[in-house]
Amino acid sequence: MMFCGIDEIDITPRRETPGGAMSQFLSAVAGIRGWGEEEFLSWLWADLQQELEAIPLAEPEVRALQVISSVRPGERVIIYGDYDVDGLSATTLAMELMLARGAAVRYFIPHRFLEGYGFHVNTARKIAARGCDLLLVVDCGTKDVEALEVIDQAGIPTVVFDHHTPGDGLPKGVLVNPHCFDLPTPLTALCAAGVLWSWIWRSRIMDRSWTAARLDLACLATVADCMDLSVPLNRCIVKEGLKLIRRSPRRGIGALLGRLGVEPQDVDEEVLSMKLIPCLNAPGRLDLAEEAVRLLYPGDGSVEPLVDRVLSLNEERRRLSSVIMKDAQGDLDRHVYHGKDWPVGVLSSVASRLCNDRGRPVALVAPAGDGLRGTLRIPNGAGDAVKILSRMSHMLSAFGGHRCAAGFSVQRHHWEAVREGLEAALRELPSDRCRLDVIHWPLDRIDQSMEEDLDALGPFGMGNPAPLLYHPGGFQVEPMGRTGRVSKLLAQGREIVAFASPLELQGMEARGIVYRPKMEAWRGRRRLKLYLEKVVLSSGEGVDR
């Protein structure tokens, strides 16, 4: 049993608004988030089209429209992307856009181990030598000033759609990156596929029905990159994208869901993040990411061999991730871990899991060629990963990313100094484990209206966490399933699923439980299930489950 470092659990009943536009449950959720009723309702009922129409095209977006619209049928377009799901989705979307406009399209995804993230000078020289009529760079390019200078000198028009933090200078060509120009605030919260998709919609380079039919790509990327769902535009992209996947999944996605035992109509954000996205990420983590692109856009080819390959790679990813998790569990006081035999490709997913489980920053580092490559994860609101790495940029070969997630490369002779500096910097950051806010909601208050409210609140994720509720009092424990590792708690006529053995839960002097309600679908029918998050002991401490 793992004890959390909870100093205080706020279990006081929330002030509720009788009558009015919100139910008592929604009022409690708004209150615990510190939102007023008008602000909360505006967020809750946000409309995708209205959100998009409120954002005018900025100057670089107008230039992008001019350049891409000038491509004539048959002209050669090269798309350069990235090996994670955001990059793969953006690559697929860019490819479908240019194919629809009649271009002859080729795409290229760098190899994670042989080349690494970004648009590289060697690749730029090859493209410059062979020539093309347009280069589209997605989910990278903002910091690749030297490589894009090579393309510019070759006279090749270039448009970059990216969302990464810029470096000291900006590249040549047209750069559509909300972080680099005075673009409206909602755009700065988008992933790369979201930046591209919203531009296609707002620029009207394609008709709206064409663009709407590709919202699934922006949805996948938004969930995969853990973008902020407190931003209405992101939440609308995921909400409407999920509807599209349920109604009409891509051929490759539908086949993959079938092999995962999920019917399209039952897909929610948790199915994406826990099942579908890890499979799509696996090729880029262990082999060639192009296999995932071919699954997203299979053309007329068979998808079954691709599904077999993706599932096989995902099983290997899971095995390797378990090894790294086990290695990193030995010393819980550290923030920086270096594994001499760890595969670089699975570091980011393991780092994310460790960061979430521990509620504190984590960096994982492994050998890559002649040097080392690492990934850094920081809890939301605890600090800025890119700023931390920038302090030691003179010792890094490369770095980049976002506030909560960043990657870096370092030569071996700089590693000890980087390790010490990174460990010291991460120790200074606050932990998010000091307080847990929950809504006082006894089990006997659960009713049909709460189920409707949960549907309205979703999809859940970064910036829009599922509400945690507190039920005072004890419970009975019964085994659940055959493994002995799952139990069900019985209280007030309700069942709460606990991922713990009955032996771990029996005999506790419980003051109450913290539980998470979730609407789940099975063959198109939705039902409410409750999951145990923590047992609150009589002492006030929380036991994590």
Describe the structure.
Keywords: Exonuclease, Hydrolase, Nuclease. Residues 442-533 form the RecJ OB domain. Belongs to the RecJ family. Residues 76-221 form the DDH domain. Residues 339-425 form the DHHA1 domain. With 545 residues, the protein is of the alpha/beta class. It folds into 3 domains: 2-15 and 435-544, no CATH class; 49-248, inorganic pyrophosphatase (n-terminal core) (Alpha-Beta Complex), CATH 3.90.1640; 329-427, Diaminopimelate Epimerase, Chain A, domain 1, CATH 3.10.310. Helix content is 41%, strand content 20%. It has 21 helices and 21 strands. A 6-stranded mixed beta sheet has the order 1-21-20-19-15-14. Helix 5 (85-100) runs antiparallel to helix 11, helix 6 runs parallel beside helix 7 (145-153) and helix 14 runs antiparallel to helix 15 (290-296).
